[in-house]
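Minutes, structural biology subgroup

Action item carried over from last meeting: produce the structure token record for Quinolinate synthase (Microbacterium candidum). EB confirmed the sequence was re-checked against the source entry. Recorded below for completeness.
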Amino acid sequence: MTATPLTLVPRPEIDPSVDHGIQAIVAGASSAETCNTDLAAGPWDFDIRPGYGPGASMGDVIPTGSPRQGALPQDYRDAAEDELHARITAAKDALGDRVVILGHFYQREEVVRHADYVGDSFQLAGFAKQHPEAEAIVFCGVHFMAETADLLSQPDQAVILPNLAAGCSMADMADIDQVEECWEQLAELYGDLDAPDADGLVPVVPVTYMNSSAAIKGFVGRHGGIVCTSSNARTVLEWAFARGRRVLFFPDQHLGRNTAKAMGVPLEQMPMWNPNRSLGGSTTSELEDAKVILWHGFCSVHRRFTVDQIDKARAEHPGVRVIVHPECPMAVVDAADESGSTDYIRRAIAAATEPTTFAIGTEINLVQRLAAEHPQHEIFCLDPVVCPCSTMYRIHPGYLAWVLEELVDGSVVNRITVPAEVADPARVALERMLAARP
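Output recorded by EB:
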């Protein structure tokens, strides 16, 4: 039998902009659903209010004293999308090599189009080191990412976060005081945490996800630990197990559980540490037998994905390939065909040689962009409700235009700096991470 050549039917152009979709929903021009119609407003409407803003993290409790963004000048708030695009482009041209713009995969399309580098947190940490000649690094992401860029860049380089209110609810779930208290309780249980046993292993090695504050990274660096990302979590856990009997993993329980489970660690050896309970809510025997102690934290974006959504995708799209992020709950990761970092998801789609239907469990801005970049495939988000990351969405092109035009005028605004007493040990933990390549 002769094979019949496959003819691709051209599909209408896919708009990569999530914001355009949300505006259409609010205007009644789309039948899709969003988790909060306030997402159609400018983020400056929420900067003066406590909270993470509309989106996936809007139900999370923000710590007292979290950074707030000052008022954005009115002309940036009033400017249309095309005007902001032109102003950003002109400012970039004027600044030339004096500025490098980094954009996370989860940023809105109107911001990402101006980034010199786009990537996940692991990749952007590396890009931050590659341009010592730049006077400023504008990090279009969230607060802990800008802190990391400051740790890895040159002392005379200014790292700028366009909107100071762009935090991370997951990172905020591991407070430095709570982590220090946890460490003290573990020392009471295990003894001297710096003392290796007969096999040369210490009782516990701390591992923090990149999605954590500089203070937490500094804690890890001081105590012989390491930072990980979703790209190298397995490699980092292998590093830690070669040095310690156990791992204290924070702040995301799901990445820790899914990674350790794939490495063969039994679930009963992964107790949860709830910082609001004595011994984290576990018994002494559970902690004695533990291989991985999981912090009670999570990502509100990835917690939205469910097994029911996967079942529905399979029923409606026979042969669908389901890929989810390892920050999703274990049941979701187990029900999917594959799990991996944002860069893994991007590369998996790019490598597919035949037209394929993909159901993706990660942040909607990346999913929508991938759908636009690969029209030969059918690509959709597992969650039918449009609900972007609350804090990534706080970076609006109005803020990017503002910080760039301030640089053109010789002024640095929204600079992120990490104190030396925190930066030095945090840098040690980050350098260990950068060396732990999968």
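Discussion: The two ends are 44 Å apart (CA to CA).
Next step: EB to file the record with the rest of the batch.
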